Structure formats: structure tokens, C-alpha cells
Amino acid sequence: MIAAPRLRGLLLMAPAGAFVALAFLLPLAILLSGSFQAEDGQLGVQRYVQFFADPLNREVFLRTLRIGFLVTLASVILGYVAALAIVDLDPGSRGRVIGLVTLPIMISPVARTYAWIVLLGRTGLVNSVAHEFGFTDAPLRLLYTEPAVFLGLLQLLLPLIILPLVSALENVPRDAVPAARMLGAGWWTIFVRILLPLSREGLGVGGVLVFTGAITAYITPAMLGGAKVLMLETLLYQRVNVTDDIATATVITALLVAMSVVAKALLNRIARGRPLGRGRAR
Amino acid sequence: MSDAFLELHGVTLRYGRSIAVDALDLSVGAGELVALLGPSGCGKTTTMRAVAGLLKPTSGQIRIGGQDVTRVPPNKRDVGLMFQSYALFPHLSVFENVAFGLRLRRLGEAEIAERAAAALASVGLAGTEGRLPRELSGGQQQRVALARALVVRPRLLLLDEPLSNLDARLRLEMRTEIARLQRELGLPMIYVTHDQVEALALAHRIIVMRGGRIEQDGAPAEIYERPRNAFVARFVGFETILPATSLPGAPRGATAAFGWRPHHVQVGAGPYEGRVLGASYLGEAVEYLIESDFGPIKAEAPADLPRHGPGDPVRFDLPLSRAVALEAEPAPGGA
User: Fold this and answer.
1) Which CATH number fits domain B4-228: 3.30.70.20, 3.40.50.300, 3.40.50.2000, 3.40.50.620?
2) How many inter-chain contacts (A to B, CB under 8 Å) are there?
3) Measured between alpha carbons, how far is B129 from B149 in angstroms, rounded to an integer?
4) Most CB atoms within 10 A, among A167, A198, A211, B234?
């Protein structure tokens, strides 16, 4: 009798499950297994060794990790600040502010990225203002730099962490923060010991969305970084479309999947509330 | 009171144009349990939160133990607060909830364990250390909140409607518990409630509030038996309140109105005539709502007297000998 509802549940999940299995898991498995197969058909990590033997590939890989990490870090910090402020609003204005936060998501990434080009280009707004006020003699090269890619990605992905953080922080019991204050906790302690552990699911979800989004974004690094600031995704596109190097492409894809999985595991671990003790109370 | 432990001088809290607390003067002596009593919106919770430091007064001064704490943040005031919602930390075990404040005081692990265990034992919750708050009943959560507030040995404890989420039996039990702890610790407390029964049973002194001001400040018996004005009288059960001018033969002077509890009204005989609107059997007594020239009158008569049904004409008396004389009320809301 107990098994019946479970069976029904499984049946109901079957169509979606089958779709995911056929359209996603299976191709992914084929792709990943391909990356572990050398040209002569032998199983092994030979393709990975070859990939990392190339200094350009190493550089791109490390840059992707770096930009992914920095964008995630910055969006976690800015996201918490924004989410805490939003949760503090009365429900009416909260809805309006959340609407504003989601607005950029509805605008085409290409249009948004062009806006950055307008701002950061050689004759862009930033350079003309800096020149006008005599801060610079020659225009600064802002476009096709890592900071430009970082900025573009941060703007693109920030809403994806604000929203889960807001919904997580909304569920923190109303008096938990004043209760901690009354027991002697300062703001940092309250954040680390109360708010962070109670919003860890939002942090996990948002952090993974941002990190994965940052390392797999194509338009932003392509337009703001170009060939000078290659990331794995832009390199992948080059390998497939320009050099027709499918082998390297499968390795890059596998690396991106692995990075996402590792990032998720790490974020879950970091977000997990440590018990107050172990002599580290503050 | 010169030996006041907590003093509020002219404390005002303003939200935009509305005034939540209006130039309040209040004091609590060392070891005294004072109840702030009043309906919702009377400013009692706002006053308590200002004492806690969670709200900043617009003007006025708050002193604790002789020290001006008006600008001191709540985490530096050494004041405990037990929230109506308990406000336990849902992700921490019962033990860690109680130990939270101790850890912030950088005590040794052994002392933390010992004091937390003792605090839990003192509220009858030894053995629940490892559980999460959601695994406890409402009454048990309430006790954890009390233990958590007391374990850091605050110099003043504030209780915000601490019993309002409990059923009747637990309420009595908790009330006894709070009274016992207060006696044993000699800890000054402010007890915020809208329930006159709780205030009467627990407090050494009751401060009745309305519109951010104090209506009356006195011992429980004084508040209950000699309410100063109609507002306080209604709050402590004087259901029938009539202006002195409407009563033939009533003395004039300072008395603005007279008040009667339902059982003070005599039903079945007397100079006045009315009609029964409703009658409810309460066991020992019958409660009547009588329509009269004075307006509706609530009366209670012993059940063994002849009964009256709805629609019956009935004679009644409002004996002045049993009435409480009330002063005129200050105009509400002013300033």
C-alpha cells in the first residue's frame, strides 16, 4: 500500500526523466567518454594531457577559473548587500525593486554588451570623460581586457544570485536577528552565524548559477574580451568552428562540466553552517 | 523613585507623523517586575524595544543602572529579551541556542557547557540539548527562549507577550515559572502584555498604557480595584461605564463617570427598566445584555435567581455604593 503512491510518483516523473536521459544525459555521456579516448581508440587521459601541454590552453583554463571565481565572489558580496536591503523593505516596494533587479534579464545580452562597448571603447564615455577632465593623455584600453569581461559578466549574472538570496533571507524568522543582537552579537557575527547559514540554500543555488553562467557565457567574453581575452567558451567556439578540432572541444566541454560540479560541491560546503563552537566564536 | 534601576525620561518615538510613544517617564526598581499593560498599538512593545535598544527614541533619555544608554546599541546593553515569537535560531540545536550568548562572551568550553546545561535544567529541559527547535513543542521552545535569555545573566529582562502563543494550562505553568525565576534571581523585569490576568498575577506594579502614554501606574490591586479613568476601568473588567451626569442623584465634583463590573449590576429589581437582549448561562451565573436608556448594560446574576429570557422586560439597578468613581480621561492622541 505504501509503495503505491511512490510508484505513481515514479510514473509521473517518467516522461520528464526519459527526456532528460535521452536528450541530455546520454549525449553528455557519449561526449565525455569521447574525451577519455585517445586517437588510437585507447582509453585514458591522453587528450587532457595534450590539452594542458599547450600554454595557450593552460592560460585560457586558468583565466576562466579566475574570472569565474572573481565574478562569483563579487556577485555573492554585492548580492548579499542587495538582498539584505531588499528584504528590509516593506512588501510593496520590495516587489518593485525585485522587478528592477530582473529587468536586465529581459534585455538581449547582445544589446547589453554593446552598451558596455559604448561605455568602455576608445572613444567611449569613460575615456572621453577621463580625457575631458585631464586624467589621461591617451585613451585607456578598457575594452578587450579581463576587467571588461569581469564587469560584463557581473552585470549579466548578478540578478541570478540576488533573487535566490532574497527568497532565502525572506524565510529567516523575523526576530532571529534582533534576538542575536540582544544576546550580544555584532553585525558580522549575525551575518556569519545566523544569516549565512539560514540562507545557504539560496547561496548555493545562486552561486552555482553565477559561476556556471560566468564560465559558460559566450557573448560577453566574445564581445568584451575578443581573441585577446579568450575564455574556455570562446576557445571552444574557435576550436569547433575555426580549426575543426573536435577532440579539444570535447575536452573543454568536459572541463566545463567538471568545473561546475566542483563549484557546486565547494559552494555547498562553504555555505554549510559551521557550528558556533570550536573556540572560534566571535 | 530614587533607587530606580531603569529610568525613562521623556522618551518619545515618532514614525513620520504618528507618535508611538509620547514623552514617557517610567522607572523600574531593582528586583521589580513591572507589567506594561494595554491594547495593541498602545506603545507598550515600542517602549520595550526602545529599552532593548532595538528602536532609537526620537528624543528623551534611557538610563540603566545609572548609566545613560540612549545611544548604546542593543548588543552592548546587557539586557535580555524574550520574544513573543520565541525567535530561536532554527539551524542551531537547543544547546547551541542557549550557548550562543555565552560563546560571544568568550567563555571557556567547559564553562559554556556547564552554564548552558544548568540553564536548561532550571527550565526543566535537561536532555533536550541535541534537538533542533522545530522538534520541540511550543511550550518547550518558550522555555528554551527563556533559558537563552537568562543564561547570559542580563541585568534586566524584557518579556514581550511571552505567554500569548501557549494554551491555557501551559500559560499558568509558565507564569509560575517566570515568577519563581524572578524571585530567585531578583532580576528586574518588564513584562509586556495585553492580558490583565497575566499582569495581575505576575507583576509587582502595572503600568497601563494607551496612545503612547501612561494612563495609570500602580500596584495590581490598585489598578484592579481603583482604576483611575474609564479606559483603565474598561480594561480591567468594568463593562458598564456611564457619565456622572446621566445618573440621577449621583454626586458631582471630580468624578466624571462611574463604572460597574457585570456582577455589580443588580438584575430583577431596581429603579431602572430595560429589555433583555441576550442571556448566556455560565454555570454559576447567567450573563445578561440589557438594552436600556443608558445604552447596553452587561450584567451578571447568580444562576439560582429567577432567569430572564431574551426579549423579557427586566428591572435593574446600578448601585452607586458598588460603583467605582472615575476621573475624566485625558484627550486621547493629542500633542
Assistant:
1) 3.40.50.300
2) 82
3) 16
4) A211
